[in-house]
Amino acid sequence: MTTGPDAEQQRLRDLARLRRVRDRMDREYTRPLDVEALARGANMSAGHLSREFKRAYGESPYAYLMTRRIERAMALLRRGDLSVTEVCFAVGCSSLGTFSTRFTELVGVPPSTYRAEHAQATDGMPSCVAKQVTRPVRNREAPVSRARLA
Q: Average pLDDT of 12-32?
């Protein structure tokens, strides 16, 4: 590994490209995005993009994209006017099973349960606060619900 001004400049260029990839995922989360397409757009190989993205942001590009989709799905489910299937496709997922599994991993409950239990969870709350308190937990860290014993 080389060090020095050239290596530092390259690192900064790579970080700028990674930021553009992340921004694209934030904007285009409803579109079919895969690592190969994202890498082409950043003039990187898919493997290099994946490694550097994880190094910079702590998770893979796919995990980041799914987190964005789940965040939007949570908002749509709280609204209550769409079915879970409609929400799944509205946020860019093509598989209801994958969507439901990832939603449950991040949020801790299945989408249908979330929809039923959280419909009015953010009523009267400023949107900037609602976004913070409803943000899904990343990397499979959702707390496991346990029955309380009296």
A: 94
